[in-house]
Amino acid sequence: MIMKDMTYYNSILLLLLCLGLWATASESPLQAKGKKSVTDLDAYFDQQAISIYDADSICFYQSGSKKYASLLEDMRQAKHHIHCEYFIFANDSIGRAVLNVMRQKAKEGVECRLLIDGYYDRQRGYNYRHRLLQLEKQGIQVKIYEPYVFPFVHRVLRDHRKIVVIDGKIAYTGGFNVADYNWKGKPGVYGGYVDTHVRLEGSCVEGLQFLFGEHFEKAGGKGFDGPAYYPYTEAGNRTVGEREVVVLERGRQCASKKAELRRALVKFIDAAQDSLHIASPYLLPPPSVRRALRRALRRGVQVEVLFSEKGDTPLFDAGNLYYSRRLQRRGAEVWLFDGAFQHSKVLMEDGRRCLVGSVNMDYRALRWNEEVAVVITDTVATQWLDSAFVNDQLNSAKMSTEYYRKMPFLKRTKGFFANYFLSWCL
Q: CATH for 56-239, among 3.90.79.10, 2.20.28.10, 3.60.15.10, 3.30.870.10?
C-alpha cells in the first residue's frame, strides 16, 4: 500500500516537473520569430513602474552643426514654450545664437526657460546676478542648478543632463553641450569632435518634459502643468506602438532613482545575446557594470568598444586603455578612434535596442551626476547607430597586444591609478 502511494506521488511530481519545464521553455527569450521576448530589462521596467512611451519620429545627429541647425529651426517654430537644460552653456557663438532665438520667441509671447548647471558655467558668467537679471528682463526664466559656492562641496554632484523640449511635442537629448567646440574641437587638445544626439517626437517627449520640470523647480523655478506642456496625456494618446522609448534618469531624490540608470545599464548588457557595441569617452564603469560585461563575454557575445585614443583628460585616456585591455584579454574588440574626440554615449544590443544619452560609462556618471538616457527598442534606429559605429571603426585602429606592450610604463601606471583609485571620485 505504501509502495503504491509512493508511485502515485512520484508520478504526480514527474508530471508537475514536465509542466514546469514546458512553461519555462515557452517563456524562453529564444521564442519563435515574430513573438516579443521577455528580457530582464523589460521586467526591470515593469518592477520599477518605469513608463514606456511611443515615438512618432526618431532622428540622430553626430554632427554639431547639423544638430544645432535642426535645434534652432525647431526653436524658431515654437508656439508655446522652449525648455532648455544643459551641463555646459558657453558664452560663445552657438550660446549666443540659442539665446537670441529665445529672446525673440519671448517677445512673441513664448515661454522660455533655461536651466544651467552651476559649476562649469561659473566662469562663463551665467550665474552672476547682473547677467541673470538681464536675461530675466529679456523674458528668459533662468535658473542655476546647484550654484558652485563656498564651501565647494558640490564638486561631483552636477547636473550633466542635456534636454530641450519644444511645445511638449519635440525633444532633444544626448551628449552635445552648447559650445562651439562641439563641432570645431579644441585646438591644441584634440582635433574634431564627434557626439550623438537624438531628436524625438511623440509621447516620449513627456518623459523628458517631466525631468526638466522637476529640476527647474528644484533650482527655484516655478512649476508648470497642463495640456500645453503634456499634450499626449491630455489627449489620452499614450498607446505604445512598434517603437518603444523609455526615459531613464540618475537622480538624487530617492534610492531607486540613484540606482535607476546603473541597474538598467546592467540589465541592458545582460539582455545581449549576439552583439554589444559601446561608444563612450570614459570607460571606467562601477563593479556591477564590469561584472555584466564579463558575463556577456562568457556567453559568447561579440563585445566591441570604441573610444578616442586621445581625449580631453590624459589621466582618463590612460584609464580607458588600462580597463579596455582587460576586456580585450577576455575576448572583446577594442577600437581607438583617431582624428577627433569621440564624445558619444551610446550602446547597441543585438541590432534591436539602443541606449543614447548624457551618461558616460564611469563612476561619476553612474554614482554622482544627474543624468538622462533613453532606451529605444526599434530595429531601424538601432541599425542606424550600428552603421555609424562601423563607419567610426573605419577611422579607428584596432588595439593590439603589441600596442599595449609598447605603451610607456608611466602611462600604464597612470591607467592603473585611474582604474583603481580615481574612477570613483572624478
A: 3.30.870.10
Cell digits for 126?
551665467
| Residue 81 parent element (H or E) | strand 81-86
C-alpha triplet 273, 257, 85: angle, nearest 5°: 100
User: Looking at this protein, which amino acid is placed at residue 391?
Assistant: N
With a CB cutoff of 8 Å and minimum separation 6, the contacts of 80 are 110, 111, 167, 168, 228
pLDDT in tens, 19-47: 443 433 333 333 333 334 445 888 889 88
Alpha-helix residue ranges (DSSP H) falling in 33-137? 40-47, 64-76, 93-107, 129-137
pTM over 0.85: yes
Q: Which helix (H) or strand (E) holds 92?
A: none
| Contacts (Cβ under 8 Å, ≥6 apart) of 328 | 334, 399, 401
Question: 40-47 and 255-271 helices cross at what angle (nearest 10)?
Answer: 160
